[in-house]
Amino acid sequence: MADMNEFDDIDDYSPTDYSSDDDTDSSETSFTVLKEADICRCIEHEITGLSDVLSISKLEASLLLRHYNWNVCKVHDAWFVDEFGVRKKVGLLLEKPEEKQVSYDDLTCGICFESYSQDFIKSVTCGHPFCSECWGLYIHTNINDGPGCLVLRCPEPTCAAAVGDDVINELGFEEDRKKYYRYLARSYVESNKRRKWCPAPGCDYAIDFVGCDGDFDVTCVCSHSFCFNCCEERHRPVGCDTVEKWNLKNSSDSQNETWKKAYTKPCPMCQRPIEKNAGCMRMSCTTPCYHMFCWICLKDWSVHGYGGSCNRYVGNPQPEETSPLRQELLKYQHYYDRWAANEKSRQIALTDLGKVRNNHLKEISKLYGQPETQLEFLTEAWQQIVECRRVLKWTYAYGYYLADDDDAKAKLFEYLQGQAESSLERFHDCAERELKIFIDPDELSDSFDDFRLNLIQLTGVTKNYFKNLVTALENGLSDVASSSKQQKTSICRRLKVPAGETCNRMTTPEDRSSNLYTAITRTSANPNNTKAPKKTMGAAPEITTQTKRRTADNLTPQGEWSCEFCSYMNPGSAETCEACDRGAWTCQHCTYANPRTATTCQMCAETQ
């Protein structure tokens, strides 16, 4: 991993540097869901193939595959080296022992020792006679003992002859046969590391995983999504080892119960207990208070806004007065509370998604005369909110295990996380608040088309940003230097800087600080460089020429102040934000952020 000190400037970095072709979706090609019928077809295909190659019966091929754990290559290797030895090991006798010439009344069952006519006596290739009733009880006992019944042998204690499916089908009880074939399907699926059962309760589907670039996220047709590698819930951008450590810490730390609150917090104004029953973090107290505040940090929303910096962990201002153990405890509390809050919001969003699918689509279709097929944008929006809440939740586990001594990487991570949280809050609030307007039959709105365009745009922008963020975090934010140089070269070429001259586009404080936010959002907001659509209701506010200046009452104990737009922590001496410099203006054609002094866009030459 590269040293962060080698990077020219972390402000030139963007998660879009790792973005892949939008036309390729690994989730579409990396796995296949196997239903019961699919598994049966796969088993039959394996048996038939081996039977044809070795010129043996399907019954014998099935027994061979089970013995060698469904590994066809191992069967071939062993068979062609020593066929007789393999037959003896598996219990496949070449010839049936010579039968004694006896009358029908002379056949005695080897278990109950009763005499039966030949019609009631059955045997496998070894010829040992047992009555049908004893066979049924023998099969029943072994199947109830577990999957060992798949390599069942003759009831005669000294005999190793294999008992095949034909005997199970003919003499086994119906429930035993069903259980036997469930064991057979399990043995086939679990014999290959590429296949796993869906871990959802009650789901009988399996996943056949091909794999693609370390992405283990899979989704079963039962709608359960999980990581194929560790079978936990999907957890990108953190790895399976981080999830294991995080879950272990959550379950083993006894002090964890101290801050696992019951999802209620007192209103900062009137101290009345408030339950979080909406998805976004903007909370409002009830009558007569109506105080609006952030659910995470409890700050006044008029000061906090969508760009609040409550994602950033700030240590104790006087660490010498706090033990290292206490510091670690406070850090864990910070990240766990935000991890749990986003999981709570995700669960609420899942409930809202169900309401949209089952109720709201029908209501809006009836109120506004729109077919439900044209309202899929609502479902897609809520699906994206659920996914983004999941990603944002796991970024807090990522941040907890981020190295404390890598200050540059920590600041970059907090900036990217803050932008993601801010954009998701706007998106979630828009979907949650404005949807209520259009499902109210008493107040029909004439701005439904504007709402549709705005929500579709917010869905696309948020999806692309989070996709790029996940890829960047999975790469460890490690390629900042190379990304910066490539980005500078590309911009210098577009600006047509003469050879031999130094491009100062990326070196002035204003341009360098505003570049990060622009680079991150350029691909997400306008990936095809098309003309930006008109601003619609609920859209994020445009960047203006006014900047957020520090005031004495918003300084932290360390003497820093947080930019309300990008959440970057600035020194108290800074008059404007050193990270985003909100004095810049954004080109409406290409979304490029330009310096205040520019009258035309330095990227596409469009007039301001």
Automatic annotation (TrEMBL):
Residues 557-580, 581-608 form the RanBP2-type domain. Keywords: Metal-binding, Repeat, Transferase, Ubl conjugation pathway, Zinc, Zinc-finger. Its cofactor is Zn(2+). Pathway: Protein modification; protein ubiquitination. Gene3D superfamilies: 1.20.120.1750, Zinc/RING finger domain, C3HC4 (zinc finger) (3.30.40.10). Residues 1-27 are annotated as: Disordered. It catalyses: [E2 ubiquitin-conjugating enzyme]-S-ubiquitinyl-L-cysteine + [acceptor protein]-L-lysine = [E2 ubiquitin-conjugating enzyme]-L-cysteine + [acceptor protein]-N(6)-ubiquitinyl-L-lysine. Belongs to the RBR family. Ariadne subfamily. This is RanBP-type and C3HC4-type zinc finger-containing protein 1. The lineage of its organism: Eukaryota, Viridiplantae, Streptophyta, Embryophyta, Tracheophyta.
